[in-house]
Write a structure and sequence with these properties.
mainly beta; 47 strands; 34% strand; globular
């Protein structure tokens, strides 16, 4: 379809007159297909009459001969009084009918209608799913993100679905349900978890689709509003419990579900509820899929994204550090889908695995560049668009390829950018690019200096380049790195056309220039490079090349800026934290280490019980600016949702500054700010134990965050780059997570707390973690 024709269709669909003509009678029976398998499907619908009539479906292979009958259950979900949020009117009596059709032939068209007493729906056509493990023909999925707008305020969800049907007809011909196997909704199917919104938004606005193809939902944050226990969500979608992949039910089997259709495994996690139970379940699913020859493709879904450039706080640390890495442990993960950033489409890729991750723009209200503080250009996101979109996933089983197209109706302010806005292909049998080499490197260089790379060579087109610099040729510890894509669509021209801006247009992304402040003078370094193609396969790293920078920064001091033994002679317990203006004595319990049950704060502005009370700003203390190491021996008596050990920060809504070494429940955490955004890094391997002393260390070198537990690297993140900004007031603290609006004391002990103004090497961290908490600093 040409762009002018798409614009015409979108405009027509969004005009009040045409949308008003769509039927929306409250008593319509609207069948909803879901939880499909090769031999069964569930059909549900809302009715308001015939309380004592059984839920009934008549079906068959001929529309004029519905000679089979299935009977199910009817549940009264009516609320008294009913909570009404943004609905045209209350749902009133709400009977929810559920019927399972069993014994279906795989990949076969069926006709059916639903019956509630004397009410009958029209006859609809559907197609059963292919056999589990089948690798024939095409398997296609329609994807739409948030659509929680109610029908009396926006009709964009209907417009997206109408455009999707038209686009499927144009691309593939034939009947819609013969070309699309199912639809994925990625959460926020409602604005509030109330009956009238499930009826008005999720069912009525999608009536052009949901009676012909099954819909699978992920749970969003808005489903929890007015329904914190998800009682209505579970009631509507509890059929997911009937089709668990290999019988692997989670403890919350509706919000967290995995099911197989054909040779595709769909995994839906609940990004609202981070838990060890959910991580364990995801691990079992991943392991089963890895060993299952009947699964060729895994598609992961959560409502919250891994990261969001336009609205960074939309990104989920649980998704980024737990869900996505767990699923990516299987090389069958091919795509990760999310939503939550309303009216935004974004595409990135996991750094090490060939996995695209998307934010599906959906049909809720728009978010626009400049609307929020802290918008961030992430290296692992290739494009972000202000666009309401849907995706068509087309898996060609014989060719073992997955093609994803993203179509848009523009955004709520402008339809100028409607049309095909993105397309990419993932091929399972692709070959990696050839090994490159670093060019323009010599034994000694003078900064600023520009490194180059040999030309890209591979069977697919060039997509990305990554450079790394380290002190040793094994690159066990990377000091500096940069990764660039051939395009970097970030920001737009704004009103009226909202043209996307490619930040890399006209630049040579294969060159890396380092300035005089980027390296230390007279210091030996190694550099290497690798290439990535558009199939997301990396080349081998180039051979390391050694060089010395003749000029640059003066080396940072070896000794820490502050060291607090919290042991031995209590008269000297403050150590050289006195260099930060802290000289008061501390009390001690339990054999000489500090018991922080009361939540001791080292530098507390205006508090009379602080260990020290220095006038002025945290920013005046000389804390680390571009490199940081913070470490301590820690004992945990109990865990909290937000735990702090050593920190100097504020995290109050969108106001984020400073850094913190702490923990989230049982996971160690390094939180750090660059620009105006703080990232909480809690890798799954950073698991902690009650009652044992453990050494924790967080390291930041200006471009990479690293977290160590007992001297072992448990994870690294490139989320933050640049200098660390500090708040004008706050606390340099030990043993608490505290800012202007929160105070959560650490329950346990601390020893050997230290802050360095440089990024310690892995070998130095290992020395700190040797033995017991009585260790001295490394020499």
């Amino acid at each position: 379809m040409s762009r002018p024709l798409i614009n015409t269709l979108a405009a027509a669909l969004l005009s009040a007159g045409l949308l008003a003509a769509l039927p929306s009678r409250a008593d319509d029976l609207i069948p909803y297909l879901h939880a499909p398998t090769e031999s069964s499907t569930w059909i549900s619908w809302k009715s308001s009459k015939n309380r004592n009539a059984p839920a009934r479906v008549e079906y068959g292979l001929n529309p004029k001969q519905l000679d089979q009958v299935a009977v199910g259950t009817l549940e009264d979900l009516s609320q008294s009084p009913e909570i009404v949020r943004q609905c045209s009117k209350p749902s009133g009596t709400y009977y929810y009918n559920r019927v399972k059709l069993s014994g279906l032939k795989p990949a076969t068209p069926y006709y059916y209608r639903v019956v509630s007493g004397d009410e009958k729906s029209p006859v609809f056509r559907m197609r059963s799913q292919p056999e589990a493990g089948a690798a024939r023909g095409h398997f296609r999925v329609l994807v739409i993100g948030d659509h929680q707008f109610t029908s009396n305020t926006s009709r964009d969800y209907e417009a997206l679905l109408a455009l999707a049907r038209a686009k499927v007809q144009e691309l593939y011909g034939g009947r819609f349900e013969d070309q699309i196997n199912l639809m994925l909704n990625l959460g926020d199917q409602v604005d509030n978890g109330v009956l009238c919104q499930y009826e008005d938004i999720h069912f009525k606005q999608a009536r052009s689709v949901i009676s012909n193809i099954p819909t699978i939902t992920a749970v969003g944050n808005h489903e929890y509003y007015d329904d914190p226990e998800l009682k209505l969500y579970n009631a509507h979608f509890k059929s997911y419990e009937d089709v668990p992949y290999q019988g692997l039910l989670s403890k919350r089997p509706v919000a967290e579900a995995a099911f197989q259709v054909g040779n595709v495994l769909f995994v839906q996690a609940d990004s609202n509820k981070a838990s060890a139970d959910q991580r364990d379940w995801l691990g079992r699913i991943t392991e089963a899929a890895r060993n299952d020859p009947g699964v060729a493709w895994v598609i992961g879904t959560t409502h919250h994204p891994i990261v969001s450039e336009q609205y960074p706080s939309d990104g989920s640390t649980f998704v980024r550090d737990s869900v996505a890495p767990t699923l990516a442990a299987s090389d069958k993960l091919a795509l990760y889908l999310s939503a939550h950033s309303n009216g935004i489409y974004a595409r990135g890729a996991l750094r090490e695995q060939p996995v695209h991750h998307l934010i599906s723009g959906g049909a809720a209200w728009g978010q626009f560049w400049g609307d929020t503080a802290g918008q961030t250009d992430y290296e692992d996101v290739q494009k972000t668009l202000e666009a309401q979109t849907f995706q068509i996933i087309d898996i060609d089983q014989e060719r073992r390829t997955m093609t994803v197209q993203t179509w848009s109706i523009g955004n709520e302010r402008s339809r100028a950018q409607a049309g095909l806005v993105d397309r990419f292909v993932r091929r399972l049998d692709g070959q990696a690019p050839r090994q490159p080499a670093v060019t323009e490197v010599a034994e000694r260089i003078t900064l600023p200096h520009s490194f180059g790379s040999s030309e890209f060579s591979g069977e697919d087109r060039f997509n990305s380049i990554e450079y790394q610099i380290a002190r040793e040729p094994d690159f066990a510890e990377v000091l500096r790195s940069v990764k660039r894509d051939h395009e970097n669509v970030f920001l737009s021209s704004g009103s009226p056309l909202y043209r996307p801006i490619d930040q890399n247009a006209g630049s040579d992304v294969t060159r890396w220039t380092l300035g005089v402040d980027d390296l230390f003078a007279d210091t030996r370094y190694y550099i290497r490079v690798r290439h990535r193609d558009q199939n997301l396969l990396w080349s081998p790293w180039s051979e390391p090349q050694r060089f010395v920078a003749s000029n640059g920064r003066a080396p940072l001091p070896f000794q820490p800026l502050a060291y607090l033994p919290l042991r031995g002679d209590l008269a000297d317990v403050m150590g050289n934290f006195s260099s930060l203006g802290c000289g008061a004595q501390l009390t001690s319990e339990d054999g000489g280490y500090l018991d922080t049950t009361a939540g001791l704060l080292l530098l507390n502005r205006g508090a009379s019980n602080a260990a020290c009370n220095k006038a002025g700003s945290i920013a005046e203390l000389g804390l680390p600016g571009t490199e940081l190491t913070v470490s301590a021996w820690v004992r945990f008596n109990a865990f909290t949702r937000w735990g702090g050990l050593i920190g100097a920060f504020q995290d109050n809504g969108s106001y984020e500054r400073g850094w913190l070494l702490g923990y989230e429940n049982q996971l160690a955490t390094l939180a750090l700010t660059s620009g105006t955004t703080m990232s909480y890094f809690s890798p799954p391997a950073a698991t902690l134990t009650v009652g044992e002393w453990v050494h924790l260390a967080g390291v930041y070198n200006g471009s990479l965050m690293r977290l160590y537990v007992q001297g072992r690297l448990v994870g690294s993140s490139s989320d933050r780059k640049g200098a660390i900004p500090y708040p004008p007031s706050g606390w340099l603290q030990l043993g608490a997570y505290k800012d202007d609006n929160e105070h959560f004391p650490h329950k346990g002990g601390l020893r050997e707390a230290a802050i360095w103004g440089r990024a310690l090497l892995a070998s130095e961290i290992a020395e700190l973690a040797k033995g017991t908490p009585a260790n001295a600093l490394p020499r």
